[in-house]
C-alpha cells in the first residue's frame, strides 16, 4: 500500500455545530474540503492503528463519493478494519449500535439529517467515539482547531470499493467489510421489545399503522422490522425507497413536512398509529388517529410507562432532557423519585450520563428520543416503543396521552423557528436579549411574573466539563418558560428558535390548541426578542 501525502490549504469554516459539520454539497466538493476535515479528525485522535472504523450515511447525494474518499484516507492513516453499510447506508442509530457491538474505535456518519439533499442542498459528516455517541465538545473543538492549520492529508491510490456486495476484501493491512445495514439493528430491537406481542397485535388487526420513511434511510429498516418481522402489510411503509434527494422534500418528521402522513392521520380512515422518521433515522414523529404527540410529551409518556417494555421492566435509573424540551418529563421523574437532568441541545451531552448509568431514557423537543441501548437518538426505536405501549395498554394513542395529562398535568408547548435570518440581525437579537437579562427578574407581564432570566450554562456531572452560552431562558413564577437559541445545524444564515411552554393542571382546560393557549407568551416572546420587528417578517417559517 503506497501512502501519498497530498498538499492542501486549510479552510476556515470547518467548525462542527450541534451535530457535526454541515454545509452545502458544493462546499464539500471544493478541492480537499472533505479530505481536510477527515484528516483533521484523524490527526486529533490517538492510538487507532489497526483498529476498526464504522462508515455509513443516510444515502443523500454525495454519500457514495464521500465514502470512497474516506476509505482511502482511513487506509492511509492506518486503520485495520472498515465496517461499511451496504450501499454506503447506515442509519445514525444503527451506526451507533454497530460501533458498540463490534467494539470499533469510532465511526464516521455522513448525513445532514433532516436538511434537504441533492447537488444544490446539504451534506454533513460527524465523528462518533467508541461508546457509539457523537464526539464530545473537546474533540470537536480539536478537529476544528486542526482544520485551521492543516496543510496535507494522507491517502492511497486504489480503485473504488464495491459498496453493494456483502463480504470482506483485503487491501494491504486493511480489511474492508461490507455489512448488512439492518440486521444487527433489527436484532437489537428484538432484544428490547416484545416482538411476539407486537406481531400478534399487528397481524390480528388490533394495531393498524402507517410509517412514512420520507424517502430517507429508515425505509429498509422499517420494511424489515415492521413488515417482514412484525407482519404489517407492505403498504404500511410509505416513501420507503431511499433517494439521493429525498424526493425533493425535507426529510423532517413534523406535521409540516410529513404532510402525507398527517393528512391520513387526521382523516376518517386513519390507522391506529402513524409515525415518520428523518433523513438519518434518529428522529421520530408520533401520531395516533386524530392526534399528534408533541416530542416532549412523548418523552414523558415513555418515561411514565417504561416498565411495560421488556428492556426497561426493572425501571429507569434516571431521565434527561435537553434544556428547551418541556418540563413534562420532570414531573414523571419527580413522581417516580428518580433524577432528571437538564442538558444543552444535542445528543452528545447525554453520552456521559448514559455511560455511567445515571439515566436510562432521554430526549429532546426536536423529535428525538432514545435510551441506553445506543448513544444516539433513535427514530424506529421510539416507534416500536409506542407500538409496544399500545399493545400492552390496549388503549388508543389519544387515550394514552389524555390519561397522562390528567395524571401529571399538561405542559402546553410550541416551538417557532425563524429560518435563514441574516446572521448580523440574528446576533443582534441575541445581544438584545442578553442585555435585558439582569433587569427581567421580578418584572410583571400580564399574568406572568419573571422568576429568573439567564443564559444556560451546563456543567457535566460526570467529567466536570462546562458548556456556556447554551440558550437564553426566561422562567416565570407559574413554571412557564420562554427559551431563545440559535440553531447549530443550519447551512444558510441563522435560524432563531423560540420555545414556549405553560403548565396546565386543570383537565377541563387541557384540550386547547397550543398556539391559542400560548398566545400571550408568544406575544411576550416577540416583545423581548423583536424578531418580527427586526426582520420585517410576519411570522415563523416552521411551528412545531
Ligand atoms: C437540532 C435540534 C437538536 C438536535 C440536532 C441534531 O439542532 O434542535 O435538538 O439534537 O438538531 O438533530 P439545532 O442546533 O439546529 O437546534 V439531527 O436529527 O439533525 O442529527
Ligand atoms: Co437526524
From TrEMBL:
Annotated TM spans: none
A GO cellular-component term linked to this record: cytosol
E.C. numbers: 5.4.2.2
Record-level Gene Ontology MF annotations: magnesium ion binding; phosphoglucomutase activity
Keyword Membrane: no
Keywords, in A-Z order: Carbohydrate metabolism, Glucose metabolism, Isomerase, Magnesium, Metal-binding, Phosphoprotein
Alpha-D-phosphohexomutase alpha/beta/alpha domain mapped to chain residues: 14-152, 184-286, 296-408
GO terms classed as biological process: glucose metabolic process
Metal-binding in keyword set: yes
Catalysis: reaction(s): alpha-D-glucose 1-phosphate = alpha-D-glucose 6-phosphate
Cofactor(s) this protein cannot do without: Mg(2+)
Family classification: Belongs to the phosphohexose mutase family.
Entry-linked NCBIfam families: PRK07564.1-1 (NF005737)
Protein name (record): phosphoglucomutase (alpha-D-glucose-1,6-bisphosphate-dependent)
